[in-house]
Amino acid sequence: MQRAEAGKPLIKFNHCRKCIYSFSVPSCCPLCRQDLGSRKLEEAPVSISNPFTNGHQEKCAFLLRPTEGTFLREYDGRSDLHVGITNTNGVVYNYTVHGVQRDEAGWEQSVSIPLLQPGMFGLMDQWDKYLEDFSTSWAWLPHRYEEEHHNCYSYTLTFINCILATEGKEQLDKDEFTEKFVVPRTRKASKYITLYRAIDEHGFYVTDRPDREPSPPLGGGLC
Ligand SMILES: [Zn+2]
Fold first, then answer.
1. Domain segments of the chain: what residues?
2. More confident: 12 or 181
3. Please, how many CA atoms are within 13 Å of residue 4, restricted to the half-sphere of its CB?
4. How many CB atoms lie within 10 A of CB 221?
5. Cα(31) to centroid of ligand 1, in Å?
6. Mean pLDDT of 186-215
7. d(CA 83, CA 112)
8. pLDDT at 38
């Protein structure tokens, strides 16, 4: 899995009254072939934030990745997703039909959601022990695995609820968790994947600039 990093960076620049996306700024505009060497400030390229991170570099985070393959290459928006939780050394704990796995590789292209607010050092000190103790519970023995109702989601959500309980916070049910945390990220990831693959295939991707309407009042100008 050497090639499974977060992928090439994406950038966006404006030319020909369009938004043009590519992996790097070309020397000339792919639409009009005009030299891009001297460009106006409003045409300066901006980088597009990458929704994927190397999960093994994330501490105390919830991670999401396709069960098979990677987001950028194989994910089709409906593929099964696998989830896990990192300890403070980037080891990814996840529950499968073989019991709790402690992965040191394979989560290099994940969607990551931090589970600790900055400054919660007390909890961070205890994190690895909590996670290890939780994982050795009989509940997560291999024979208890059940694809629909006792799976990787049950494992991570139960752990997250244990943490919320120690913080005196309200519990989350599966729908709430999916709605609040998972869906917004997978939606963003899907858009990024579409863009990424189009650029990979054609070298660039073009959209109209929605900001060219008669002067937008406030905060306009984004596309
Ligand atoms: Zn142009």
1. 55-188
2. 12
3. 19
4. 12
5. 5
6. 85
7. 10
8. 67
By the CB criterion, residues less than 5 angstroms from ion ligand 1 are 15-16, 29, 31-32
Asked if residues 159 and 128 have their Cβ atoms less than 8 Å apart, the reply is: no
Question: How far is the centre of ligand 1, averaged over its atoms, from the C-alpha of 218 (Å)?
Answer: 27
Position with higher pLDDT, 157 vs 45: 157
CATH 3.30.70 fits 55-188, yes or no: no
What is the spatial distance between Cα 163 and Cα 181, in angstroms, rounded to a whole number?
Answer: 16
Contact yes or no for 12/21 (Cβ under 8 A): yes
Q: How far is the CA of 80 from the centre of ligand 1 (A)?
A: 41
In whole angstroms, what is the distance from residue 196 CA to residue 71 CA?
A: 11
Which residue has 């790097």 as its token pair? 24
Which residues 6+ apart lie within 8 Å of 35 measured at CB?
27, 28
* Beta carbons within 10 angstroms of residue 23's beta carbon: 15
Dist CA 29 CA 2 (whole Å): 33
Amino acid at 101: Q
Q: What predicted TM-score, i.e. pTM, was given to this entire model?
A: 0.83
Question: Three-state DSSP class for 215?
Answer: coil
Helix (H) / strand (E) element for 20: namely strand 18-22
Contact 45, 74 (CB under 8 A): no
Tell me the angle at which helices 121-135 and 152-166 cross, rounded to the nearest 10 degrees.
140
